[in-house]
Amino acid sequence: MAVETAPQQGGSPESPADRPAGDGGSGGAPAPAGRPGWTTRRWLRVGVCSTLAVLAVLGAVGAWALARTASISDHLVGVRSPALVEAVRLENSLVNQETGVRGYGLTGRREFLEPYTQGVADERAAVARLRRLVGDEPAARADLDRVLDRAEAWQARVARPVVAAQGAEAGRVLEGAGGGKGPFDAVRTSLQEQQRHLTEERAGTSDDLADTRRLRNGVFTAIAAVILLVAALIFEGLRRGVTTPLERLGADARLVAQGHFTRPIAATGPADLRRLAGDVEAMRQRMVGQLEFSEKARTLLDEQAAELRRSNAELEQFAYVASHDLQEPLRKVASFCQLLQRRYGDGLDERAHQYIGFAVDGANRMQVLINDLLAFSRVGRVHNDHDTVDLEAVLEATLDTLSVPVEESGAEITHDPLPTVVGDRTQLGMLWQNLVSNAVKFRAPDRRPAVHVSAERDGDVWRFAVTDNGIGIGPEYTEKVFALFQRLHTREAYPGTGIGLAMCRKIVEFHGGTIAVDPEHEGGARVVFTLPATGADDSRTTVSAGTGRPAS
């Protein structure tokens, strides 16, 4: 392998000898200014620890400020504002009561007491909520008790006597109480004092929240400033102690990446960077060795590819010979044996006739085996005309071809509506022929053969199944049956070459699908295979399953 060598003269990159001497005789970044003997790592450690200490203090203050802000905000939203709202609702409920009592007293009609009745219920609800909100605040509780005391005084003096009176008597009771204005004015005054106190407390809480937020913002600003300062210091330290040596190391590495594989990596800068440069140099040396190995492997691969091409050419030649030169002698053997039997049959005994039958049968089986092997070897090589294929039409043609064995066995063959796919029509016909003929051939002796071909869309593929009620395939043989020349029964019981399912797998995989025997199916065998779906119009497949075509 030719390895490019870096130019040594006339614009060549700076060599290690041309660089200024530094630590250990190699160019390095200048040490950071500071106390003698302090390394960059020590400066960074001290700086980081100091920064973390400051950030810890500021973080604690910030956390307290956040917690305080959340607490005040929750108190404002959950207590102060709701308490003021409930105080207003309490006032409205008492005003509604006073309105109902006054209306009843003036008219004597009971329907005017509806505001009073609703107001009493609203008062109870508002008082319950207020007690829950201000239960631990003595001043607010005292304001509420004052309102309730004056409201009770109004109830005892005015409201309840008027409500207890009937008809016009209610007006006289109200008039006797002076119209109830004085007692209810006292209620109004206590309500106004309560609302004023609650408003002042809410304003104070809002001021506390604003102060806490300002403190929080100040702390976070200080944290941001410290972070920026530390970032600037770290950036400068990294630039002086790390970036410059790394740039020199990167320049050497780029030269190697450009093809100067013999260019050594110079070790410069601090000790850790010199160790890194040493690792890169070791990697460069391993890369050179791997490139040499890859070149040898590529040469060997090219030789093997050429050998494979020669082997394929020989295989093509063998296929030609097998299809012509081998089958012709077999046909002659069978023909002359049959001629011999017809011409001299009267002079031959029974054993001679049996021997001639063996010879003819062997020649015929050899021809079938050769034809099956040729068909198997040609999958993916000879037939490769991919086009849109109507699988239903292909299956119909296959059933016509198999009409004789189907009629002899009395098989009933049905199928779902089948889609259109992209593939090789000849190979897909061979697929149907092998699967259907196997389903008919391996039938149970005690029942009429029944074969069903189903199809369903499963995402980007069509899933097909050929199901029969024959002798079935044991779970331990579900993979073995797809191997070449594998038979589960004797040739006398079920004739065949053991190539059919192997050819089916090769055809399906050539079309980008999968094929397998369903091991869970009982009462026969089910072979399931998939083919990629196409964008063709498959509207026929929306017809309900089971409307297939019976065998003729």
Q: What layout of secondary structure does this protein have?
A:
Blueprint: H1 40-107, H2 114-134, H3 138-164, H4 169-176, H5 181-257, H6 271-344, H7 350-378, E1 386-390, H8 391-401, H9 403-409, E2 412-415, E3 420-424, H10 425-441, E4 450-458, E5 461-468, H11 500-510, E6 515-517, E7 526-532
Parallel strand pairs: 2-4
Antiparallel strand pairs: 1-3, 4-5, 5-7, 6-7
Helix pairs in contact: 1-2, 1-3, 1-4, 1-5, 2-3, 3-4, 3-5, 5-6, 6-7, 8-10, 10-11
Average pLDDT number: 74
Helix content: 55-70%
Number of strands: 7
Cα radius of gyration in angstroms: 50 Å
Q: Biggest sheet, open or closed, and with what strands and sense?
A: 5 strands, mixed
Query: What's the CATH class of the domain at 41-236, please?
Result: Mainly Alpha
- Order of helical and strand elements: HHHHHHHEHHEEHEEHEE
Number of helices: 11
CATH topology descriptor of the domain at 41-236: Four Helix Bundle (Hemerythrin (Met), subunit A)
Low-confidence stretches: 1-37, 536-552
Structural class, judged by helices and strands? Answer: alpha+beta
Principal-axis shape: elongated
Q: Strand share of the residues?
A: 5-15%
CATH architecture of the domain at 41-236: Up-down Bundle
Strand adjacency order, main sheet: 2-4-5-7-6
